[in-house]
Amino acid sequence: METMSPLEIFSAVFGLFVLAMIVASLIAWSVALRRLWQGDDILPLENRRPVGWGVDGVIVALGLVVLLANAASFIAQRAGWLELPKDPQTTPISLSDMSTLLSLEGGSRIVACGLLVVWLVALYRSSAIDLGFAVRRSHLVAGVLGVVALLPPIYLLQALLTVWWVEYEHPVLELLQESGDPMYLLPMALVAVVVAPLTEEFLFRVVLQGWLESKAMGGPENAFPVAGPSPGGDQVDFADPAAGEGGAPIVAMPTGATPDDVRRVPYWPILVSSLFFALAHLGHGPAPVTLFFLALGLGYLYRQTHSIWPSLLVHFSLNAITMIVAAVSMIVGEGL
């Protein structure tokens, strides 16, 4: 009996995984379309309080990310830990320097997000719910459903664009495959699978989309108790003036509004945050197009749950699968 090679074994297992994901995705989308046809939301919309920060939160976030990333790179170059080519077009960066640069960028992003959290809590008294960190079982379920529903069509779109339009490019993956050196795989995988999803979801979904939703809903100063189920299953009574206290769910309503004209969370912030998310990935072939559509799904998950965890789970899974395929391809020495 002929023994299967490691690549053949991985290809068989991965093929079964892909098949299972496709079937599960078709089922998930059939259920989703049925709910839409019946006039329901795909996922229930959780009531929330509009976040307290404004455009200043977005500006501070961008400033911290850019400032700390450049500061880390400058210090590393001055210390001799990093050497960047003067002309990247003619002299590509080495794998070791790319690994160092990614580690510095990842570390600076984590520090920037940490400082931003401190700033939002200190200035606006943002709670864990405002920051999207409160986790419930329903959020994890929504994340799993998002993985099943979003990843197969996103990978299919990426494949079609790669074949019919332009080849997918990612300098990190290309350097890894060209070098064949697994020593750099772990730090790069850590940045790609953990740091990038966490910081990007916090910046694009929580900070940017959260601010846009708050702006469209009138801001926290117009918040008013809303009748309906809270995430914990309790009802909030309009007649009770204290119903919004103690962390009860509240959304923005205009002055003098009644329970019949509660303004739902708008959809357009999803489009805006998705566009900026796609633009942040320019230079990776057709990736901005596929990531725009992915971000629409991620933004919808955030809109419905007001939590970072569902979109983070999807983003983490996407990057993890990509890195696993790249790692196996590099270690085995063959393309998949």
UniProtKB/TrEMBL annotation:
Protein name: CAAX amino terminal protease self-immunity
Gene Ontology MF annotations: endopeptidase activity
Residues that span the membrane, as ranges: 12-32, 53-76, 107-128, 140-165, 185-208, 270-302, 308-332
Gene Ontology process terms (BP): CAAX-box protein maturation; proteolysis
Taxon lineage: Bacteria, Pseudomonadati, Planctomycetota, Planctomycetia, Pirellulales
Domain CAAX prenyl protease 2/Lysostaphin resistance protein A-like intervals: 185-217, 267-321
Keywords, sorted A to Z: Hydrolase, Membrane, Protease, Transmembrane, Transmembrane helix
